[in-house]
Every structure is written in structure tokens, then in C-alpha cells.
Fold this sequence. Notes:
The complex is a heterodimer.
Chain A: H1 2-34, H2 36-58, H3 90-126, H4 128-143, H5 146-157, H6 161-169, H7 173-188, H8 191-198, H9 203-239, H10 251-256, H11 258-261, H12 267-294
Chain B: H1 2-31, H2 40-52, H3 54-67, H4 74-86, H5 101-136, H6 141-155, H7 158-172, H8 189-215, H9 218-226, H10 230-268, H11 273-282, H12 286-314
Helix pairs in contact in B: 1-4, 1-12, 2-3, 4-12, 5-6, 5-8, 5-10, 6-8, 7-8, 7-10, 8-10, 9-10, 10-11, 10-12, 11-12
Amino acid sequence: MAGTVAAARSDALNQKIKNRHRSSWYQGWKRFKRNRLAVVGLVWVVLFFLAGIIGPWVAPYDYRVGDFLAINQGPSWQHIFGTDNVGHDMFSQILYSVRSALIIALGATLVSFVIGVILGLWAGLRGGLADVIIMRGVDFMMTLPGFLFALILVVLLGRGYWSLILAIGIPGWAGYARLIRSLVLGMRNGEMVEAATALGASQAHIARRYMLPNVVGSMAVSLAFGIPGDLAQIAGLSIFGMGLQPPIPSFGNMLAAAGDNILGFPWLLYFPAGIFAITLLAFLFVADGLQEAFSPKGGN
Amino acid sequence: MAVVKFIAKRLIQIIITLILVMTVSYMLMYYSPGGFMHTTVMASVLAPLQSQNPILYQQVMDQFNSRYGLNLPLWQQIAKYVWHELSFDFGNSMQNPSLSIMSQLKQTLPVSVDLAVGSVVLSVIVGVPLGIVAALKRNTWIDYVVGTVSLAGQAIPAFVLAVIMVLLFGVVFPGILPIAGWGAWKDAILPVICLSAANIGVVARYMRGSLIETLRLDYIRTAKAKGVKYWPMVMNHGVKNSLTAMITVIGPQFAFTVMGTIWVEQIFGIPGLGKVMQTAFTSFDYPLAITSVFLLGSMIMIMNLLVDIIYAFIDPRVKL
């Protein structure tokens, strides 16, 4: 009898310990859920990803094929978002655009992030001359708009997927490098690590239990802010005539056609501009929610 | 004396950075496939010549290259362009050889600067009160609405907003405000609003955070204890203190606004620096492209320098 009570108690204790292990993530999620806009944003972002993944299979028409008998039509049951000046179905165009936008934005953010992490780690761990040079480089990149570099890189590399990923990704490293460096420095000299070391914790244990959970939140937040920024940059390049080469559909190319379409055929802009604006908002609300939930110090 | 030394040091830094930026831009353009004579327009003009009279074609190309120094070794080309830019001798552009770049800039640059200045002024006028209200009504629905709106302003880039504005005032409510062109003051309203959305968000969020922090400080408690009334306390002790720090936000923001004008000009059909830059880069117009990089870069960096100097003057705690 006494044994079972003790077992139940230790079960409860184990459960409690387990909960505490998961608590930083669990509580982060709980804080995130409380932010209603962030949750709505997350739903839209998930839908956006879904559209990007399954878009080409559910798109009713091929993006390359125009129907010359149905040009510049308003929304109808055949073409729910209407058709453009060569008879492309706008709904299909948008579905393909989602895919191209996601591929480039995620790729570019990853490129910036990887360069930033490598340089930031290097600067933070090595210190000395490497640190000075890398931080000068960060200042240099921060003073000038990355867009300028992106523009020149597109001229150099061309207008394909890979070249756009690199053109937008390469100039974007500075912010990540600075963040990683400051995290490394803060961690290395932080009281928490000192205390853990004093208690005899192993390096691996410190890295896993104290450093990583603290770093992951900030990195996730900076990535979440990075993706909508890169999405906007892709479209910005298109407005300059330097985005994805048409006929590959992209939001930027549809927006760039604004001048020609605005008065006669406004639905060619309602849908792309509206969906693009909502998507950027959704990504930003999610990023903001993540910031509140996982790195409350960084927020205001 | 320290101030002079500080400014001199920063100016040298700015010049070094500018040389680097111009060198990088030049090299990237140099190694890109294509050239001014190979852009669609020029190529279509020159194609008959090339096929009918290859010798004359070669002469034309040689003359063009020697005129812009494109036959020199790369480092000499770069040195030449960098030197000309730094001595403000911009020369003539390739697309408009009879007109000096300087006179072209005299027409286009003020337009972009007007738009950027208008946007910064508007964002302060709107953003500061929004931030104050949000800070004083912290964690109420007013605060959340202001926070969401400022976030939205920051999320949507100026060019997307511009397209939405054109739709709104061109299709839904036509005839209220002009959606294209440049000349009357009314033409500036929509572009300035589009450019300001992000700035308003930044200013409001910063003002809110800064004021909340300021109102927690000891001297505010002292002021309260002394019996200073609520609004004088907020305005004179809180807001005034937060406003000085605001300059550090507005400076860099101004730079990004200048960058933003490039797109907004494109969409509203405004003849500013943006249009010039776009054609310069897409047509390999070296003199014009390098000049626009030079101008944009120096404007941004000098703005940041000015901010640091002004900040040191306003806030005695800051040392240069």
C-alpha cells in the first residue's frame, strides 16, 4: 500500500520535472497563443506555405498558357481572379507566384543566415583582428541599403532563381552576424554560464541546457523578421525590372504592371497587391508574436 | 577641438567607404555581361551597321570606349571614376551625352529630397502623438491598435502601398487626388503618405518605448512628488527627454526613405533620382550609375554623421 503511494508520488514528481523541462517552449507557445493577431497571421502563413507546395497541382491552368479568346476578363466562374492581357488565369498565376516567392525568400534568408552565423561565430569566438574586420564589414553593410547591392548583383548574376537567392541573400548577412556575435559574447561572459561552471556542469551540458535555448529564441525571431523583408525585396527588384524573368509569375511582376492595368483592369491588381500585402502583414505579426513569446527582452 | 577631430575622422571614414562602394559597384558592372552599346535600343540601331560595315562599326565602338575610358585597364578606369566623383566632376551620361549629369541632377535630386523630407516631417507629426498616446494608455486597446497599425506600416513596403493607393484613388474614389505626375502640391500627397507609413510606425513604436522608460525614472517621481501637474510633467519632463533620442531614429530612417523614393517615383511617374538610377543601372551607363551610388551613399552617411553631431549638442551626456 505504502509502496503504491510512493510510486504515485514519484510519478507525479517525474511528470512535474518533465513539464518543467518542456516549460520554456510550452510557455512560449502559451504566450504566443495569447497574441490573437499572431495566431491569425500564423494561419495565413501556413495557408501560404500550403499554396506554395501544392499550388502547381491545384492551379486550374498552366501559367505559361494564355487563352487568347479570354483576355482581360473580370473575375468569373471560369477565372475566379480574372485574366490578364494575354489571357493568363490570374488565380493560377498567383498560385505559382506564391511558390516562386517562397523559394527565393526562404533561400535568400537561409543564405544570409548561414553567412551571418559563420561570421558572427568567428568574430565572437576569435575576437581580435577577425572581430575588428568583421564588425567593420557589418558597419559598412549597415550604412548602405542592401537593396543597392542586390540590384548590382542581379545585374551581374542574371534573373533566375539561384541568382536572385544569392543577390538578396549575400548582402543580408550583417544583421545576423551582429546578433550572433552579441549572443556569443553575452553567453560566454554571462553569469548564468559562470554559475553553471561553478556548479561543475560540463561544457556540453552548458551548451545544451543553457546556451542553446537562449540563442534559439532570438535566432528564430530574427529569421521570422528576415523572411518578410526578403519577400519585399524580391518584389522591389521586380518593380525595377530586375526580378524573376517573366513569364515566370511573381508578385513583383504583377505589381510592376500597375501602370498599364490600373484604370482599365483593376482586378489584375486587387488580388496580387491585396494578397501580397496581407502575406507580408501575416509574416510580420507572426514574427512579432514570436518576439514577444521567446525573447521578451528584445521587444519593447 | 574634440568635435573637429571627431568630424574629420568620420569624414575620412566616409570617403574610404565611398571609394569602396564605388569600386565594388564598378567591378560588378564591369564583369556583368552586356554593355551600354549592347542594350536593346543601342543594339537595334547598331545591328545594321555591324552587318553592313564591320570596319566602321568597330571604329564607332572604339571611339565610344575611348571616350568613356573603357579601353583602359580596370584599375585605371576605377581610379578615374572615383577621382572624378570625389571632385564632384560627374561628367556627362552615356544616354544623354549633350547634357551634364550635374544639370540632370539639379532637376531630379530636389524632387526626391522633397519627398523624403516631407515624409520625415509627416512621420514626426503623426508618429510622435501616436507614440505618446500609446505610452500613456499602455496595455489598453488604444495601445494595441497603435501598435498593430505601426507594425502594419512597417510591414508593407512603400511600393506595395503605392499600388494600393493608386487603386484606391484611381479606381475606387477617382478624381479626389492625382495618382500620377508631378508639379502641383497635390501630386505629392499620395507619394509622401506611402513613404511615411513605415516611418510613422518606427517613430510611434520608438516614442512609446522611450516614453514608458523615461516615465519610470527617478526624476519623474520627484516631479510628481513636487506636485507638477500631469500634462506638464508628461510633456516637459517625459516627452522632451524622449524627443532628443528620437533624432537617432530619424537620421537612418531618412536614408531609407530616400531609397524608398526610388520605387514610389517609379509607380507615381515622378521624375526624380529613382528614375535616373534605374535607367543608369539597367543600361550600363557607367558615369550615371556611379554618380547615383556616390550620391546615395554620401547622403546616407552624411545624414548619420549629422545625427551624431546634433545629438551630442542636444544631449550633454553624449560625448563625441
